């Protein structure tokens, strides 16, 4: 599987597995099916609840179209870079620095979705609005993913994001959420000096350390954080990093 080294907020390179092309395609088709089912069910529900004659465009059209248009950016913003299809396929959108993408980056990816997957061209060709050879543009996004050395589509390149294979299909594990036991006593209030990008990088680094049993990486990250925040810690490097994440969750919930 293709991997890429990304420089995190701690100036340490971490390996990430690039999402295989077939997983992105399956995720795309799953999301398309979700939207198709929504379109069918919402139409039937509105027709059942509202007995007035249906004349387009009216408020019912807007009510049905808005969720379809906002599905991708809204899902990725709320679920840390994932849609239903991406969750099922175990892939996620991150920044080129290995952290969580910003709202503007998610929106930028979404704005270029029509350029990446212009399925509407098929509809125009079918209606006779475009010549048959226009169908080549439908595959522009696919070609970009295949050719790009980091498997990025046009929207990813413009937004500064990429899609990784998380090997995890549980939503809460893909966030900075860490369960805290009752009566937990935080040790490092300095953790709140870290940015959201740093915290997201920290969570991904901890997952990488556990997965690869990479104690050297844990030590380098721990020392880097201590130097950056001018703090001391007597814990083992991995325990220190996990405690930082717990402390962040503790202070953030207060």
Would you summarize the structure shown here?
With 254 residues, the chain is mainly alpha-helical.
Description of the molecule:
The chain has eleven helices and four strands, in the order ββαααβαααααβααα. The chain starts with a strand and ends with a helix. It is mainly alpha-helical. Helix 1 runs antiparallel to helix 2, helix 2 packs across helix 4 (103-111) and helix 10 crosses helix 11. It is 54% helix and 8% strand. The chain has helices at 21-49, 59-78, 84-89, 103-111, 113-116, 120-127, 140-147, 154-159, 196-212, 215-229, 237-252; strands at residues 3-7, 13-17, 91-95, 161-165. The strands form two sheets. The chain has a two-stranded antiparallel ribbon. A two-stranded antiparallel sheet has the order 3-4. It folds into two domains: 3-165, no CATH class; 176-252, no CATH class.
Strand content: 5-15%
Radius of gyration: 22 Å
Number of domains: 2
* Tertiary shape: globular
Helix content: 40-55%
From the helix content, strand content and strand pairing, which structural class follows?
Answer: mainly alpha
Largest sheet: 2 strands, antiparallel
So how many helices? 11
């Amino acid at each position: 599987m293709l991997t890429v080294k990304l420089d995190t907020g701690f100036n340490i390179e971490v390996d990430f597995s690039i999402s295989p092309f077939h997983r992105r395609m399956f995720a795309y088709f799953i999301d398309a099916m979700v939207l198709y089912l929504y379109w069918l069910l919402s139409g039937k529900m509105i027709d059942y609840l509202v007995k007035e004659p249906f004349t387009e465009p009216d408020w019912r059209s807007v009510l049905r179209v808005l969720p379809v248009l906002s599905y991708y950016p809204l899902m990725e913003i709320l679920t840390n870079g994932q849609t239903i299809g991406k969750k099922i396929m175990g892939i996620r959108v991150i920044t080129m620095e290995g952290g969580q993408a910003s709202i503007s980056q998610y929106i930028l990816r979404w704005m270029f979705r029509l350029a990446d997957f212009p399925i509407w061209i098929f509809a125009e060709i079918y209606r006779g609005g475009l010549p048959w050879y226009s169908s080549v543009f439908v595959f522009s996004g696919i070609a970009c993913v295949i050719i790009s050395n980091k498997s990025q589509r046009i929207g990813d390149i413009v937004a500064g994001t990429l899609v990784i294979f998380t090997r995890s299909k549980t939503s809460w594990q893909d966030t900075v959420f860490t369960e805290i036991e009752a009566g937990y006593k935080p040790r490092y209030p300095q953790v709140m000096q870290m940015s959201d990008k740093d915290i997201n990088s920290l969570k991904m680094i901890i997952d990488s350390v556990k997965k690869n049993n990479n104690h050297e990486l844990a030590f380098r990250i721990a020392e880097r954080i201590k130097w950056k925040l001018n703090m001391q810690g007597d814990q083992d490097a991995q325990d220190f990093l996990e405690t930082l994440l717990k402390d962040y969750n503790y202070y953030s919930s207060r």
